[in-house]
Amino acid sequence: ADVTHLRVADSFPSGHYLSRLLLKPWMDEVTKRTNGAIVFDYFPGQQLGKAADMLALTQNGVADIGYVAPAYVSDKMPTSEVAMLPGSFANSCEGTRAYWKVARDGLVAKQDYAPNRIRLLIAVALPPYQILTAKTPVTKLEDLKGLKLRSTGGAQDLTLRTLGAVPVRMAAPDTYESLSRGTLDGVVFPLDSVVSYNVEKLVKHSTEKANFSSFIVAYSISDNAWKKLTPEVQKIMQEAGDATVKSACAAVDQQDAEIKKKLQDAGVAFEPLTPAFSAQLTDLLKNVANEWATGLDGRGKQGTAVLKEFREALGAPAN
Amino acid sequence: MITLIGLGLLFLLLALGTPVGFAMLVAGITGLYLIGGMGMVAGILQTAPLSTVAAYELITIPMFLLMAELVLVSGVADDLFRATAAWMGRVRGGLGMATALAGAGFGAICGTSTASAATLSSTSLPAMLKQGYEPRLAAGVVAISGTLAMLIPPSIALVVYGLLAEVNIGGLLIGGILPGILVTFTIMATVWFLVWQDPSRAPEATPVSWREKFRLLRVIGPMLLLFGMVTGVIYTGIATPTEASALGAAGALLIALWYGKLTPRSLSRALLRASHGTCMIAMILLGAYVFGYFFTITQVTQNIVAFVGGLEVSRWVIMALILCGYIVLGMFMDQIAILVLTVPVVLPLIKSLGFDPLWFGVVKIVTAEVGMITPPIGLNCFIVSRYSGRPVAEVFRGTFPHFVAHLIAIAILVAFPQIILWLPSMMHGGH
Amino acid sequence: MESLIKGLLGVIGAIERVAIGIAMVMMFAIMVIVASDVFMRYVFNSPFAWAYDLISLYLMAGVFFLAVSQAYGAGAHVSVDILQQTFPPRAKRLSECVTCIVGLVAFALVARFSFDRALDAYQSQDVIAGSIPWPTWPSIALVPLGTGLLCLRLAVTLLGQLASLATGRDIIPAVANSHDTGEVFE
Ligand code: NA
Ligand code: NA
């Protein structure tokens, strides 16, 4: 029988939980349902290029399917950041469902995916980032004043500045040193990163059930590679995508809960926000989102419309 | 087949004297074209050149180079060998041992072994020859002592490994300190052995007065200051390794200013030389990335690694195989290129075998030191030959005893991983 | 012919000196910015928010691409010339011709494809997300700028080698003055 090989590339170290929970199940499912007619050659760990280059590599056919994380190509996929804005959702599945909707059929698909000649296959939103600090807990707005927190740039910078904190840009592996010496007071991390960068020994406090931003992990296929597939295969890929995305976000949320437990055992105190702080936060973060949207509007990218659509998708009932 | 064409083209170009980075770039482009046509070439070439260099963490390369150049401007490095020579002078083979110590000392402020070999060639080599040392012995000890710069922090090779392997760079750099001392003593012991075998290889030096000995010690001050500025800052965690490199360069600038050696002319010369060094390394990184993508797509490396990983033997046998592979590769390839080409595929195997990636990185760099002195491509030997006007073959013969001694040092580091891991584990609570 | 080639080399050399001069200033700027950033963070609790993007987007790219051509001319790109040194002069020139031709093809491709990307980024006014929306095109444009200049250098070197081979006179040196420590730059 005819076997089609598709090159899949990402930048996760091989065996990383995201490729295990998201990519692998999808690839296995597609290979199974096509009776082995589609075979994936998987190149993990930046073997075909760096995370920021995955879009171009996918567009040019170096990879057929690439880990195109919109945050790494914010210049080319600016509207996807809507799902990474702070304060918008409470867990991975909520965020994933909403992003999946706007990035498959909505304005984000139209603005971030179509013009870049790629098509979204699978995605998850990471569980909301928390602020984890080494010395003082963050339970009210004043606690954030002047706090040096590691930031990845983008809307996270804007968020931290709005909250009165000092965003410090640095590579994630450098956070350990910086935290241990007070170069940083804390980090804005998903809980999994706390463990993978070893900072669980250094942080003592974490916010609980807040959302200080998120991150979209997404694998996309180039239009070129897509067009070469038969309609049956395309259908299988889409159906496998729908199913995998649902199970993957649940697994990611499950893992988040487990890590939280582990961190608590390691002595990290999870402090819920005070109601007053929660209310302030909602207001301030809404402003961050609106500011982000008007910024995009000014560049003709329909930020306000995207934000509205995403919020509606978040509100829509789960099916 | 395509793999062989790519490799063949690479070695043909290298043999013709095409710069290493160019040769890998051209061979990589050709291979990519044969596999995936112009589209694939376009995909890689649109992205790889910029993302190879446009990364914040890579500022360590120009900054470490600039630091070493500014130290040379300040003139304190000139006295380094004279100081070690004065203190080692009365020992048989003392100048040879002093060269190893000066190599370690200069290595503590210089990040590349070639720059260090060049400096040692212009200071300690003439001194030994003038003393009547056997040229082969003198050239050999200079070539090997230069390699200490890539093991003792700061080290550009360790930084590149850390970036590729996503291993804590601060821990890696600190992990290089004790092995650096071990290798320094290995070199000194080798010199002692060679001179014990045949005393005529190293005539005795003239004694230096105590007064002079202590006068020469004053170079230690600024050197220690700089070493503390970089390695101390990293060890204590005051700044990240990336920031420490810029602090080191700024510190070296202040030292040059303090010694009154900083002029617009000397500054611009240091910047130019650091710029050339950066270009050379970045060009090799770029070529190696492009060639590496080609090689990855052919899946040759993954298959070799999968084969080795699947062998039904002890993990120590596999480690020995990997290290031998590195030593053989090191005979033919540039060390930075080897890191780019192999780390992404070898590292998962290393981790799955239960080895510590930090430990492996330092051991890998010690095997890289070997590569700098093995024929046919042993850069340090070329540099020593060029500076001294001695034939390359003679330099290679002179490094052979050090090659053997280095293998013993590697065996010790493999047998006692704590030599590498202990200091990093002492850094603020351990890793 | 000879004067034409020497004239071209002079012009390219002048452009290269300006370019690498800028690269050197950028390198110095990286040192100053990062060192002051650490200082600002410790003393005033306010690190430079712009430093990270400025350095990774523009300065590092400039340090390499603006210097790459001059570095080639100065023989700074390390090569394994152990075999080449044993060649007779004409073979040396021929091997240099090979380097120029393959290098020209490779870097012309790099320049072309990155030019497309820079143009695309310019036309769509791409900016990175962040507190300062830095445009991406100047960073990408450094690639075709630097490698384009290198292409010119390689083309003229090739011409010089061919002319030297044809006339039997040393119009340009057989091998770029490799590992020369005596380069002068004012
Ligand atoms: Na060093
Ligand atoms: Na070698």
TrEMBL record, chain B:
GO MF term list: transmembrane transporter activity
Location in the cell: Cell inner membrane
Pfam families recorded for this chain? DctM
Domain TRAP C4-dicarboxylate transport system permease DctM subunit: from-to ranges: 7-419
Tell whether Membrane is among the UniProt keywords.
yes
Q: What is its main location?
A: membrane
Q: Which domain of life is it from?
A: Bacteria
GO CC, alphabetical = plasma membrane
TM region positions? 27-46, 58-77, 97-120, 141-163, 169-195, 216-238, 244-262, 274-298, 304-329, 336-354, 403-423
Topology of the protein relative to the lipid bilayer? Multi-pass membrane protein
Alphabetized UniProt keyword annotations: Cell inner membrane, Cell membrane, Membrane, Transmembrane, Transmembrane helix, Transport
- Would you identify the family this protein belongs to, as annotated? Belongs to the TRAP transporter large permease family.
What biological function has been recorded for the protein in this entry? Part of the tripartite ATP-independent periplasmic (TRAP) transport system.
Question: What is the protein's name according to its record?
Answer: TRAP transporter large permease protein
Q: Which organism is it from?
A: Azorhizobium oxalatiphilum
UniProtKB/TrEMBL annotation, chain C:
Q: Where is the Tripartite ATP-independent periplasmic transporters DctQ component domain?
A: 30-162
Q: Report TM segments.
A: 7-35, 55-73, 94-115, 135-156
Q: Which GO terms describe its biological process?
A: C4-dicarboxylate transport
Its GO CC terms are: plasma membrane
Keywords recorded for this protein, A-Z = Cell inner membrane, Cell membrane, Membrane, Transmembrane, Transmembrane helix, Transport
Q: Which Pfam families match?
A: DctQ
GO terms, molecular function: transmembrane transporter activity
Major subcellular location class: membrane
RNA-binding listed as a keyword: no
Q: Where in the cell is it found?
A: Cell inner membrane
What is its membrane topology? Answer: Multi-pass membrane protein
Protein's job? Part of the tripartite ATP-independent periplasmic (TRAP) transport system.
Q: Describe its partners and assembly state.
A: The complex comprises the extracytoplasmic solute receptor protein and the two transmembrane proteins.
Q: What family name appears in the similarity comment?
A: Belongs to the TRAP transporter small permease family.
Please report the name of this protein according to its UniProt entry.
TRAP transporter small permease protein
**From which source organism is this entry?**
Azorhizobium oxalatiphilum
